[in-house]
Amino acid sequence: xxxxxxTIAFRNLKKYKIFSALNILGLALGISCVVFIYSFxxxxxxxxxxxxxxxxxxxxxxxxxxENITRYxxxxxxxxxxxxxxxxxxIEMFSRFMQASNLSMAYTDSLExxxxxxxxxxxxxxxxxxxxxxxxxxYGDANxxxxxxxxxxxxxxxxxxxxxxENPMGKTLTIxxxxxxxxxxxxxxxxxxxxxxxxxxxxSFEGFRQFLYQQGLxxxxxxxxxxxxxxxxxxxxxxxxKSLDEKMPxxxxxxxxxxGIREDIxxxxxxxxxxxxxxxxxxxxxxxxxxxxxxxxxxxFLLVAILILSIAGVNYVNxxxxxxxxxxxEMGIRKVVGAFRxxxxxxxxxESFMISAFAGxxxxxxxDILYPFYNVLSGLDxxxxxxxxxxxxxxxxxxxxxxxxxxxxxxAFMASRFSIEDNIKGIKKVGSFSNRLRRVxxxxxxxxxxxxxxxxxxxxKQIKLFNDQDLGFTKENVISxxxxxxxxxxxxxxxxxxxNDIKSNPNVLEVSKAVxxxxxxxxxFVVKPWENAKLVSTVLAARELSKSRRRxxxxxxxxxxxxxxxxxxFSDIIGESKEMKSVIDQIERIAPTDANILIYGENGTGKExxxxxxxxNSQRNQEILINVDMGSITESLFESELFGHEKGAFTDAKxxxxxxxxxxxGGTLFLDEIANLPLNxxxxxxxxxxxxxxxxxxxxxxxxxxxxxxxxxxxxxxELVEKGKFRQDLYYRINTxxxxxxxxxxxxxxxxxxxxHFFQIYKNKYKKTQLQFPEYVAKKLSKFSWPGNVRELxxxxxxxxxxxxxxxxxxxxxxxxxxxTSRTDMNDQSYNLExxxxxxxxxxxxxxxxxxxxxxxxxxxxxGALYRRIEKYGL
Length: 875
Fold this sequence. Notes:
Layout: H1 2-15, H2 17-45, E1 57-60, E2 62-66, E3 69-73, H3 80-87, E4 91-99, E5 103-109, E6 112-119, E7 122-125, H4 129-132, E8 137-139, E9 151-155, H5 156-163, E10 172-175, E11 180-188, E12 201-204, H6 205-214, H7 218-222, E13 230-235, H8 241-255, H9 262-268, E14 269-270, E15 273-275, H10 279-282, H11 295-324, H12 328-336, H13 341-378, H14 384-387, H15 390-414, H16 420-425, H17 433-468, E16 478-482, H18 485-493, H19 495-503, H20 511-519, E17 522-527, H21 532-566, H22 578-590, E18 597-600, H23 607-616, E19 625-629, H24 638-643, E20 644-645, E21 657-658, H25 660-663, E22 668-672, H26 679-691, E23 693-695, E24 702-704, E25 708-713, H27 717-722, H28 728-734, E26 737-740, H29 751-765, H30 775-782, H31 789-803, H32 820-824, H33 833-847, H34 852-859, H35 863-873
Parallel strand pairs: 7-12, 9-11, 18-25, 18-26, 19-22, 22-25
Antiparallel strand pairs: 1-13, 1-15, 2-3, 2-14, 4-7, 4-13, 5-6, 5-10, 8-11, 9-12, 10-11, 16-17, 20-21, 23-24
């Protein structure tokens, strides 16, 4: 019987060739399109499913709000997750990903280059990455793979490219971009699945940190706002990401402490968490690892697939239903010869399923032919195994079964229900269910078709508009010379003047369009056809303007430094002692030279005054002297303060700033308290002093600097060199000539002279012109030890002038003179200066109840110097 059914089915197909061909071909094309679209949607939705812990993996991002501009950053600072993991117990582990792509790698053996390749998709990572992302090792193991900063873990694919079937462990790959060798310490299996983090090779993040430090970029590594690596973390099982969100305001306020009040910080910074599964379709941040897709595309293609399937299905069902009416008489004859309704139902359903199965097989053939073109169109690299995946095969079978059943419903269940007389006569009432069904299907088919046709036409018109529409200017007839930065701001601020100036040019046809390019940064226009001389002149003028702008920036920054410096009250060198006359004699001899000078002297002896005297008598006296207190510059700000930074180099870099070296170029740079410079920063200073070139943070351009260097310290640098706390090469670089400034207690004859000098200054400053300074008081001052040296004497005189309410200064105005004996005649009349200094500090700290700031001010010391003495004496 089955054979008879098949024979009848094939006879009908052969009898209605055109009907059969159109029906099968239309359905096959619809199935093919749906399968291709479904493959694309499946690809988009499959990202990150290759990681078993994907549901607990998150990326932390940074949103900053500055000057009405909102920036959404995918990378964040290296230190961010270190701080966050310390305060958030919900974080199980984290790993940072610093991109290291587009590298030229070479495999060499015995000094011979065997293979050289361009390699992409590499990262510096933390060692936790293998456990977080469940990376499986072919060679090596997760515990030791990146224990060395010179180790590299590569993928199976990269190992195959370089080493074929050989075991790559222990072999060396050279990154030619930087001239660095890495030893293969592990091989991981290729990641089976789609991910936005394509890990082709991995290196130690600690190695990246060391590299930054070697390049003098440790400030960048520690910068809170640097958008450097991509930070991912694994949430503990059972932990709720919402609990982290609730704690983030407190964390952000602490992380940015010192950058404003809490409300201001929270209004300028947020750190959203992104589930790793949502990054590919939902993330559109700056500096993404790879360009992401958009969930909108998934929805659009899903709708298109539904519409295509609807058209193909409706067309197939409608034609099959209409065709079935031709076979009503056949059903009647079969009933006459004894066929049961069940047999007729099975025959009709079988034929419908067979025809739809033919369409499914033809769809498979079409897919096999067209999938290379699909790869080109979609940008994917699918093979037959991916195209004919289990899900796609099930989709085809499902469509075949569904449409086979729908198309066989009417002839199988409705037409077979007619009486034998109606079947044989072919009677069919108007307005019957069949007619209504066909009308609904036809209307639905036409509605969908019209929608797709009009959508296609709209898209075509829109694309044609983009390509052909006259947007108001002819780009071939406009040349723009573009500048950014201050030139852009200057043109924007003087917009009306620029607009009117351009309008006055008869060669300018579209002023409004041209002005837009001016506002975007263009400096001038040359209309075609141009004269070569005018074009060259315009380019040269633009070049000179750029140089002028840079020079103005330099002068503006110098002026800011000068404004601060000239407001300081510095006196000339004052002293009549033999020791000071010797110092003045040395200054006269060394000042006219460009020799580097190292000034030794206790705190308060006047090292800065000496430095200014040297500068004043040098050949650079018409230029600036920049003073830098090395003890007050933190390690994180060292490079920014001394070498400068570009706008946007880090979050706090709101504008370009030149450093102290660049500001002092042409003049003198005075580095006070040079001994306080940490050992790890000394190499950076040495490099600049050797090469006389600096590079601002955020720039690759080297800038020549021409300075005369003067350094000062109160510590013996040669002793620090012996202890390994100061670089010997830097020591030799800065002490071409040494000057030793004697402490005030070694030249008591200078005390009355200095006291009188300060007395005259403060008497006039505080408008006490009738006040007198008796000689006996000056003599008493000469007997005091002055542990704070000249600075302490200056402050003592100022305080006495302020507090005195009579015509003459008295000993009682100097309260310490009343206890001179107790401060000097201690420890059995000991005159040991260290004991005197220790006692003075103890008493001063007791007087100010431990307030270091007030104690340091009264002692004439800096806060840092007081700290060192407290540590020295064990106070």
